[in-house]
Amino acid sequence: MTHRITPDAADRTRAILEDLEAVRENLLALSDDIWRSIDHNDPDALNEGVEFKRAFNAKSAAFDTAATALSALVQQYTRVNLDAGESTGTADRTTNDRIIAELNREEPHALDEDFTFKRPHGFILDGQATSGLTTWRRMFELICLHLYTRDTAKFVALPTNADYISSRGNPNFSTKEADLRSATLIAGGVFAEVNMSANMIRDQLLRLLATFGIPAANLRIYLRQDRDAGRATDGH
Questions:
Q1: Helix (H), strand (E) counts: the chain
Q2: Do residues 135 and 209 both lie within one domain?
Q3: CB 124 within 8 A of CB 100
Q4: First-to-last CA distance in the chain?
Q5: What stretches of 134-187 show up as alpha helix (H) in DSSP?
Q6: Which residues neighbour 154 within 8 Å (Cβ) at sequence distance 6 or greater?
Q7: Among 59, 72, 116, 133, whose CB has the most other CB atoms within 10 angstroms?
Q8: Sign of the C-alpha dihedral, residues 168, 201, 133, 36?
Q9: Residues 92 and 32 in one domain
Q10: Range(s) of the domain holding residue 12
């Protein structure tokens, strides 16, 4: 069952859904931030930090599950789609050139930066541009889809690639949704782990680009803070 709401209500709903996504990503960033602040040479501090991480990860995973379900429920009922604001030039050169021109008015960012508490709104990879993003998770999904299209055989082999399986045997990609903490289906029956902070996604993208033989410099990321600052300067 769906319910169409007024444009003003739709804008408020979208803002709330975006805030929900931001909270999810900021919680993961907070966890990274606290972990880095711990003196790992102090056994007591390290033990305390490990206990914190265990408790935090459990509660964060529960929140992530509830937030995902709540967001999906609201989007389905209100017909407010978080991805509706995206614009991609994948199939249209004119659109692609327009998006690139718009993004290039801002400062591009590379994968050697710290993205803690920052949010993306666009990227250019191999000359293909996308804008209107709301989360790192969505950016990661779209880049994975790009890689699937670029080399399908290599992408569907990721679940068995040792580079994407942790020392504890936890996979980053799988053909079984239940193998992952928070999974999203990319394509070709392959699910990807998306319960990652911005910097974890950064590290995963670096690994993926290397696997697919793509120079890291071929990916340029554009941040919301730069876009919003530009709008404020222009008086919008």
A1: 7, 7
A2: yes
A3: yes
A4: 37
A5: 136-150, 152-156
A6: 147, 211, 212
A7: 133
A8: positive
A9: no
A10: 7-82
Q: What is the pLDDT of residues 43-97, one digit of tens each?
A: 999 999 999 988 988 898 888 889 989 999 999 999 988 887 899 988 889 999 9
Same domain, 52 and 143: no
Distance of alpha carbon 154 from alpha carbon 144, whole angstroms: 12
Side-chain-side CA neighbours of residue 194 (13 Å):
25
Shared domain check, 143 and 54: no
Element (H, E) at 171: none
Residue 20, in any domain of the structure: yes
Q: Which of 82, 104, 133 is the last residue of a domain?
A: 82
Whether 53 and 139 map to the same domain: the answer is no
- Rounded CA-CA distance 25/70 in Å is 16
Residues 128 and 221 grouped into a single domain: yes
Spatial distance between the Cα atoms of 80 and 82, rounded to a whole number of angstroms: 6
| 89: phi then psi, degrees, rounded to nearest 5 | -105, 25
